[in-house]
Batch of 3 targets.
Target 1
Amino acid sequence: MKDKLEDFIREQRDEFDDLEPSEALWRGIAGKLDGSEIKSKQSDRYMWLWKVAAVVFVCLSIGLLSERYWTSGVSEEIVAVEEEPSEDIERVERYYSQLIAERRAEIIIVMKQTDIVDDQLLHDLDDLDQMYQELKMDLAQNQNNEKVINAMIRNLQLRVEILNKQLKILDQLIKYEENEAINI
Amino acid sequence: MVVIGVEFRNFLEQVTNHKDIHFELVEAVRRQDRTAQFELYQLYAKAMLNTSYRIVYDQMEAEDVVQEAFVKAFGSIDQFRGDASFGSWLKRIVINGALNVLKRRKELMDINDQNEEEWIEEPVSYDTLEVNQVKAAVAELPDGFRIVFTLYMFEGYDHKEVASILNITESTSKSQLNRAKVKLRELLKNMYNYER
């Protein structure tokens, strides 16, 4: 149904668009695009994190192990004071292993839900696990050496930390995707 | 000869592909090319801001909607299949975003739920009508009327499209538009004495 009002608006259509976008508008868009690019590259980002964590761990282990040879006198004294360290380490190991298994299971569930499969992470965790087994063998050969025990504990803690961080990142990713879904 | 043939074919493709005049730009945006993004922004920002404003009637919120829409469009450019032009795809994102703002404000009354009132059409002369007066009168329309009116008159959607955007029936869209027009005439009459 054509009428004069409609004709008037159609003829003057361009006149009705009189608002000009502010300077800040593009800056806001560019800023958000930068932010989302970082988010989309997040998988790369934590891949990098695991590599750093693995390197730090290797250095730490080597440092602690070599220190053990240089200051063996001191460590012997400490070992002498320790009561039943192998029993302690078993308790610690049980505690952390359980924690690690729980976190790992959570992450695998989340990964399955979100279709984000980070093979690198699982691989790095396996590497850490292998290093731990080596340390354990080392401990069996060098009875109750505190440095080895510390390295082992640090290994366990590191894995828990990594898994916690990974869970947080995945949570953020999921939240981000949920927001996207709501907006669309 | 072969080279000319290829060039000619490319030229023909470009000429016959009216689907999107900014095809090259869109392709660059698919590669997340920031310059191309900025060019598309410059082409569409103003129109999108005005479209957004006509729905939310608040400049800050209108800009937020446009910002979100561009970020979403550039971010999910993979979902743009080129069935329509980039501009109309973007516009739908803007309109959906603006309508969401209204929903959040809980101002959008149920369009199907408005009471039937008989409007008496008044003869109005538009000879001296001005753009600003029409804008002021449109702003006074109730949201339900205004949005149907705006989508149809300013954004150029037909009733079928308006119906799908607002999730109402085509006949509701038609009757809302007619009522909006009647109401608008009345407003113009009261505000500017357009009865001659």
Note: Chain A has one domain: 45-183.
Target 2
Amino acid sequence: MDAAAATLIGSGLAAIGAGMAAIGVGNVFGSFLESALRNPAAADGQQGRLFIGFAAAELLGLLSFLIAILLYLKA
Amino acid sequence: MALAEPAKLDPMHQFAVQPIAHLFDIGGRGVYLTNSAVWMMIAGLLLWIFMLGGMKRQLVPGRWQMAVEGFTGFIASMMTANIGPEGRKYTPYIFSLFMFILFANIVGMIPLGLFGIHPFTATSHFTITGVLAILSFSIVLIVGFWKHKLHFFSLFVPHGTPVWLLPLIPPIEFVSFMVRPFSLGLRLFVAMTAGHVLLEVFSSFIIDSLHAGPVLGVPISLASMALMVGISALELLVAGIQAYVFALLTSLYLNDAVNLH
């Protein structure tokens, strides 16, 4: 296998992380909605924390996207 | 229909910083007015017009004033919720940060390409978001050391840390503290870059699918167009969320500096 092909495969592998982050983001919003429907009165006060959790989950996905695109542009 | 050449898709071209006018030289290096600078100025100008229209201070606010007051009230309540009453004095900075990022994000989304003008998303460059992040980080450092002097370092030892964890926790806290400006700038930059690459790639489907002939191509092209409208709506949402997240995280970091923890 030549180096360019290996780089492209690595880029694809790195992109798996973006999909994993999608699960994470879905988890954050899903859990929030689940508990917000149980106690709607408390939901509004937790919106800041919701977005902190979203930002943390999203950042990791964006990092893997960054690695993927760096490898892709290098190949 | 003859098979046409596959369109040359270059999703990275939209991020190229192009010089527009040569301004002056510093140490043998030219300083140029670039498309990035021009679109940042346009975002700033639009923001200025938006704020000017809403600062009439009428007792019964009109729609425009309501829109501006909605934004200021939103940021002000976020500051009080995250920092407490002391947070009010940092509201102007967070507000400018939020509004500038929001306007820069949205200006880059305006489909002026139809008229041959290509908007440039200034926030899709790490040089811009990185500077904004460093600005936030240095304000956190200045406020922290100003208020608490060297006691600010107690930030690295959370309350109730067991003694046997003392060699372990401060280095971890230190790393997580130092990584903040990078994560702050990187998040905005990568989210905007990824969004615009996505828009470029999906919009190429609309045109490329027409090469498959009218029977197969037109339905696919129309479906891609519908998808594109949805993706654009999603990107508008991301533009708002990223501006909000940037402001929210900056206010949380400021909270660490003001109140320690």
Note: The CA atoms of residues 18 and 62 of chain A lie 7 Å apart.
Target 3
Amino acid sequence: MTQLTAVGKPSEARAARRGAGRPRRALALNLIAVVAGLVVWTLLATVGVQGLPTPLEVAARAGELVADGTLPLDALASLRRVLLGFLLGTLLAVPIGFLMGWYATARGLLEPYVQFFRTIPPLAIIPLAIVLMGIGEVPKVFVIFLAAFLSSVVSTFQGVVDVDRTLINAARVLGASDRTIFAKVVVPASTPFILVGMRVGLGAAWGTLVAAELIAAQEGLGFRMQQAQLYYDLSTIFVGLIAIGVLGLLMDRLLLFAERRLTDWQERR
Amino acid sequence: MNTKISFRDVVKTYPMKDGVFTALDHVSLDIADREFVTVVGPSGCGKSTLMSMAAGLVEPGAGEVLVDGRPVTGPGPERGVIFQQYALFPWLTVRKNVEFGLKLMDLPPGERRRRAEHAIELVGLSDFADALPKTLSGGMKQRCAIARAYAVNPQVLLMDEPFGALDALTRVQLQDQLLDTWSKEQRTVMFITHDVDEAVYLARRVVVMAARPGRVQQVIDVDLPYPRTEEMRLSPEFGRIRNEVWHAVYHQPPAVPAA
């Protein structure tokens, strides 16, 4: 045993060194890329690409929009829609996915619907949603909900189906009932799949949001960009785009962080 | 001695694209209480299927499997199973893995902790009790799995090629450790392997199986006393028995076609 642990150490040390060295280098490269991108953008704008604002003009516009409260309010409105739709979507997707993975009957009944609706882009539901639900918050949240639900449900279902049979057998031979196996083996074993599904779902929800807001909204990032388009206000459109990108990235990183923490036990090869 | 596990005329077939595959063809075998039996044979001889039936994970197609004279109807904690792929719950630490079966027994927490501690100590993993499986070597993972099986104190241990994926050195260490614990807390052990040396070194009796159809070819007694030692492994007597087993495994007469 002593030699076993001794053998383990050098590779761990190597991994640690790599872990410390790599991100710093990667971070430097990321920064260089961002700065280079801004320079190219500035050059294009000053050379005179028609109507293109410089990064500084966009930053100034962003400052104005923050100062008069428009940007925070729009971001808040968008975030509220997305989080509501996303939460409802995943809250429903996880139990449905478990049902489909665990009971053949449930799978047989639900799978045609899930597979069929998965092939329809949620945006294509917008006309129907507006006709049936009006132009208030409900159709927007519904479309976002649908996008998040369909992404999450499939990966949860797949996670349950893919649980290692030997783990289930190991629990059974220790005397575990079906209920215990479900709670203590199937749920934790499929957590990584669920979290990946949630990340995909959040991406889908965020992507659907802007389109949903292009239609009959009173506030929100998508609505603001739509308005700016009418007045040929490119700076505001850029502010909206960047805000959407930054918020999306932040939310994704937050979920990634949670995923890493919750599934740290996984053997990563 | 009392019979602990009894396979009576067990048949198991699986449907195939063209006809049926006979995994086990009328297999009968008795394993005595506290006996250490190894089952060795080529792949496809049904040795794992036979063990899974004793575990209650596979049902016989015909015939019956009895433990303590009662037909096996499903898995139970009195029959511990150790799988080749370790089957540790990767999200639980060594200690939590070992406690998994104990938690299902409604023991008081103090007793649970004490028994888990004892099992972990028995396999020499005390220093790694709070480690996650991903940080353990293959040998340590298998020892953790063995501790998990020991903890619920089963009367029967069913082991399906448990050391098959380990390197030769670790395998020998774990064999000695297994015999050591078996001599301290005697249980009935049914140990599946494809390693002839391992089969002879561990067992009082070696059951040699043949494939197509899966059946018992020969049962060979190992007249070597316990505890088994390294000298014994190198002795002429050991060599003689190993040759006999080797011959039975690798020079099997072709199957008699079923009438």
Note: The radius of gyration of chain A is 24 Å.
